[in-house]
Amino acid sequence: MNRHLGYLASLFLFSCLAFSGSRMAWVYLFLFWILVFIKPKIRANVMLGSVIFVLIRTFEGTGPSIHAGAIERIASGQDHRILMWKHALLMIWQHPFNGVGWGEFSYNMYQNSILIPVGFLDRNAHNIFLHIGAELGIVGLCIFIFLLWTIKHTMDWKGISVLISGILTIQMLHSLVEFPMHYAYLLGLTGLIIGLKQKEQNEKT
Question: Alpha helices, DSSP H only, in the chain?
Answer without folding.
Answer: 3-19, 24-38, 43-60, 70-76, 80-94, 105-111, 128-154, 162-175, 184-204
